[in-house]
Write a structure and sequence with these properties.
Blueprint: H1 21-30, E1 45-46, H2 58-64, H3 75-88, E2 92-96, H4 99-110, E3 116-119, H5 124-132, E4 136-139, H6 160-170, E5 178-181, H7 194-207, E6 211-214, H8 218-228, H9 237-246, E7 250-254, E8 265-269, H10 272-285, H11 296-308, H12 312-331, E9 344-348, H13 349-352, H14 362-374, E10 376-377, E11 379-381, H15 383-386, E12 388-389, E13 396-397, E14 403-407, H16 415-430, E15 438-442, E16 453-456
Parallel strand pairs: 1-10, 3-4, 5-6, 6-7
Antiparallel strand pairs: 2-8, 7-8, 9-14, 11-14, 12-13, 15-16
Helix pairs in contact: 1-14, 2-11, 3-11, 4-5, 4-10, 8-9, 12-16, 14-16
Length: 463
């Protein structure tokens, strides 16, 4: 089906405010040209993130009314624990209020200064939590991931040869764990193949290194395996998930993605020693282990969401809607990262705005222009988010990809609104030479993209 039809009916609607270009221009100036500082009520289509922005189902809302708010031993926790074990298969289930707390608990427990955490590609909060422990986060994705035109079906794969080289170079004793992020968000929402996971597991077995999954978008990754990998066409997504996680020693998850909830996350592990250390830290900073910083009603919504996300009719529409946006943009000549990912379409800002050098933040400039002209909010994934300044020389090390991510919230926008986004971006592409670069006037030492401020350049500077 070319035009993916929604496998749900709409019961509740939320009015969207339309703003003028003049108002959006004023808001941008007040926000220091940082879209994180723009009020959500002044955004027409909000594609900043798919994290925590999903629409919950009637079944989830019904579960919210069954919240058991007991401090210890809530019945909702036991339901949640049962669901997580049935999908992921690990012994210990530790709830947290969101994914970055799961990252913090894991890394503060097992990572020490001078260590290395290896991943296909770390996302921003994952990298920051590793570095906060005085360790180094290394990305070892296959080289094709950095070619926006390459149509490799599994561009999120770990480069297993580089992984082994890195283990031998830095020393096994300095690697507490290896991570695989499914799908690979920073690389364009690209999936990881089951074959690559098996090869990664086999290599790590030889060195005795644990494998931990960042499982934020596990269901989308498993659907891609079903679609693209030989031998899985007739395998239910739930069974694919069980096999995938069987190759790991644990996982962390922000359930605000494929948990279909607005708040929540967890760790699930087999290692008793790690689980004990993490639980002790959890009690200090989050709460008792059977609520982990969440209300009982949130645990219930999360348990039900983890079941719903495995519905293949939902996944077919979900990935089909993202693909629909990407194909419309391609048809309009707009440069995007290919193949189209699972949760977002990524605009290739370096080709969209070839006259703006990376030092003037072309992806941020593109995201600003998209909001100013059409009220659409995306997020920069490029030099602002991943550029690094050398502490000695002050020189900036630029990332290989300069992208604007258009992350589509789950079950929120209709296909007519997605069409509006595609037509707006295609129109902006025809006027791209009018877009100028930006100068950063403030940056924080970590996760600077959340709070950075900018000013517009007086004119476009040619490379």
């Amino acid at each position: 089906m070319k035009f993916p039809s929604e496998p749900f009916k709409i019961k509740v609607v939320e009015p969207i405010k339309r703003t003028s270009r003049e108002e959006r221009d004023r808001l941008l100036r007040e926000a220091g040209y940082n879209l994180f500082h723009v009020p959500a009520g002044s955004v027409y289509v909000d594609l900043l993130t798919d994290s925590g922005t999903s629409a919950m189902s009637d079944h989830q809302w019904a579960g919210m009314m069954l919240g058991d708010e007991s401090y210890a031993g809530s019945k909702n926790y036991y339901h949640f624990e049962s669901v997580v074990r049935s999908i992921f298969g690990y012994r210990h289930v530790i709830p947290t209020h969101q994914g970055r707390m799961a990252e913090h608990l894991l890394f503060s427990t097992v990572v020490k200064p001078g260590m290395y955490v290896l991943n296909n590609i770390h996302f921003d909060t994952t990298r920051a939590n590793v570095e906060h422990q005085g360790a180094e986060a290394l990305d070892l994705v296959v080289k094709e991931a950095y070619d926006p035109h390459c149509e490799l079906p599994f561009k999120g794969d770990m480069d297993v040869s580089r992984l082994e080289e890195t283990i031998n170079r830095v020393g096994r004793e300095r690697i507490p764990l290896v991570m695989v992020t499914v799908t690979n968000n920073s690389g364009g929402g690209q999936p990881v193949s089951m074959e690559n996971i098996r090869r990664t597991r086999a290599l790590l077995n030889r060195y005795g290194i644990p494998l931990v999954f960042d499982a934020c978008r596990f269901a989308e990754n498993c659907f891609f395996i079903k679609e693209r990998e030989a031998g899985y066409k007739d395998t239910p997504v739930r069974e694919i998930a069980r096999e995938l996680f069987s190759y790991g020693d644990g996982c962390i998850m922000s359930a605000k993605k494929d948990g279909l909830v607005n708040i929540g996350g967890f760790l699930s592990l087999n290692d008793d020693r790690w689980a004990e250390g993490i639980t002790n830290m959890l009690i200090l900073v989050e709460g008792f282990p059977t609520y982990g910083g969440l209300a009982g009603r949130d645990l219930e919504a999360m348990a039900r969401g983890l079941e719903e996300v495995l519905d293949e009719e939902y996944l077919r529409f979900r990935i089909g809607q993202v693909r629909y946006l990407g194909e419309m943009l391609e048809g309009g000549g707009v440069p995007i990262l290919k193949p189209i990912g699972g949760h977002a379409v990524y605009l290739n800002a370096r080709e969209f705005l070839p006259l703006i050098p990376q030092g003037q933040f072309p992806a941020q400039a593109l995201a600003v222009a998209l909001y100013r002209e059409y009220g659409i909010r995306g997020v920069e994934i490029g030099t602002v988010m991943f550029g690094k300044r050398d502490p000695v020389t002050g020189e900036t090390h630029y990332p290989e990809l300069e992208l604007v991510r258009l992350a589509i919230p789950r079950r929120v926008y209709t296909n007519m609104q997605i069409t509006y986004v595609a037509e707006s971006i295609a129109d902006l592409f025809t006027h791209r030479d009018s877009i100028g670069g930006l100068v950063m006037t403030y940056e924080a030492p970590l996760l600077r993209h959340f709070t950075a401020r900018f000013e517009e350049c007086a004119s476009i500077v040619t490379k």
